[in-house]
Amino acid sequence: MKKFNNCAAYSNATNSNNVLTAQRTALLELQQLSFSLVDLNLFLDINPDNQQAVDDYNQLFEQYWEAKANYELQYGPMNNFGHCPATYPWSWINDPWPWERGGNV
Question: What secondary structure does DSSP assign to 89-105, as a single string?
């Protein structure tokens, strides 16, 4: 199969999608960490004396908050409330809205 890497349209589309790809990768990391935290939370509900699970939860918790803070600094707030500091001018209403990004972001 022939690749069109030298095609100007392909190159422009690829370059413009690099930021979106990086954002999707960062968001996927947050989703994975969040899933793991919920899973460990459920496990700890029925195994509260499991020290290893508590340690794992705390380690993932730190990773999640660091990844979330980095994501929000680079791409903007994930929520309109909570731990997201406000910026001037107010930027929460700026495009694009999550459902306007297209695909599975």
Answer: S--TTPSPPGGGS-S--
Answer whether 24's CB lies under 8 Å from 8's CB: no
Number of domains in the chain: 1
Count Cβ atoms below 10 Å from residue 68 Cβ, excluding itself. Answer: 19
Whole domain around residue 37: which residue ranges?
8-100
Inside any domain, residue 3 = no
Cβ(84)–Cβ(72) below 8 Å? yes
**Structure token pair of residue 85:** 């500091």
For 85-104, the pLDDT digits (tens) are 666 666 666 777 667 766 55
Q: What is the pTM of this model?
A: 0.61
Do residues 26 and 71 touch, judged by C-beta distance below 8 A? yes
